Amino acid sequence: MRWPRLPRRREGAAGPEQPPDHERDRQRMVWEQLQARGVRDPEVLEAFQSVPRHAFVQGDEPYGDHAMPVGSGQTISQPYVVARMTQAARPAGPDGWHGANVLEVGTGSGYQAAILAELGARVTSIERHPELAAEARRALAAAGYDEDRVRVVVGDGTEGWPDAGPYRSILVTAGGPSVPKPLLEQLDPDGGRLIMPVGDRQHQYLTLVVRHGTDLQSTELEPVVFVPLIGRFGLEG
Ligand code: SAM
After folding, report:
1. 74 to each of 99, 110, 119, 164, 227, how far by Cα in Å?
2. How far apart are CA 228 and CA 140, in angstroms?
3. What percentage of the chain exceeds 70 in pLDDT?
4. Which atom of ligand 1 is nearest to the CA of 126?
5. 72 an active-site residue?
6. Cα–Cα distance between 67 and 113 in angstroms, integer?
7. What digits encode the pLDDT tens for the residues 182-197?
8. Which atom of ligand 1 is nearest to the CA of 158?
9. 107 Cα to the center of ligand 1, angstroms
10. Which neighbouring-strand residues pair with 150?
């Protein structure tokens, strides 16, 4: 007996393509990439379940376990690293993120800023590339995060944004040799928390700094690789 000949199936040629199921992909990302690796803060997990990452990043696998391009030669880290930074930067006290004044340096796609806004923070986010800032503003507005929740400004984030400080939490999402002094000055002296990848251009350590008055406690968390923090108190472009 001969086996019937079946038409060869090529991926995508078998019939109408299924639209991506972003809700399911996000759920899987939260379980497999975040919870399984020790991200336990329920508010953080909920925020990652809610924010549509596919609306911010470029490429076919917005929920994949890898960095993604965001335009202008920049990338955003894999979801786990974004979650790890967010969890570590949670403002101290019972209110946590709710109503907290937060600075992000390196807006990129706007995804990290959206996560912070979803958690209830009032976010100022600085980007040095005007075209990235414009695109992030557009993506944030389209996803429902208006200017009251996230304000994207263009500038050298190594100088911070003193007009809106002090900040309960500062997240620096580009790597540099040391934490820029202006950022430490703009950190809330009453337990403000700053997280930044500190190291050379190839390797950095996620570093958490907690400020009490003039006392700065610094802890290295884990190795990471970020794009360079370019500016007056960072690296040369
Ligand atoms: N947080 C971003 C997101 O959610 O997509 C990803 C940030 S990407 C890893 C780093 C960003 O930092 C890039 O967009 C880069 O242009 C920006 N950057 C580097 N140096 C900067 C500086 N001094 N001030 C502001 N932005 C800077």
Report:
1. 30, 12, 25, 26, 7
2. 24
3. 93
4. 25
5. no
6. 17
7. 999 999 999 999 999 9
8. 23
9. 5
10. 123
CA 125 vs CA 8, 147, 182, 186, 228: distances in Å:
51, 11, 15, 14, 17
pLDDT of residue 22 exceeding 70, the answer is yes
CA atoms within 13 A on the CB side of 4: 2
Q: Which fold has domain 80-224?
A: Rossmann fold (3.40.50)
Residue with CA nearest ligand 1 atom 27: 106
pLDDT at 5: 45
Cβ atoms within 10 Å of 232's Cβ, excluding its own: 9
Ligand 1 atom with least separation from CA of 110: 4
pLDDT for 24-77, tens place per residue? Answer: 999 999 999 999 999 999 999 999 999 999 999 988 899 999 999 998 889 999
Ligand 1, residues at Cβ distance < 6 Å = 70, 74-76, 105-106, 108-109, 111-112, 126-129, 132, 156-158, 173-174, 226-227, 229-231, 234
Please report, for the chain, the start and end positions of each structural domain, with discontinuous segments joined by +.
80-224
The predicted model scores a pTM of: 0.93
- Please state, rounded to an integer, the average pLDDT across all residues of the chain: 93
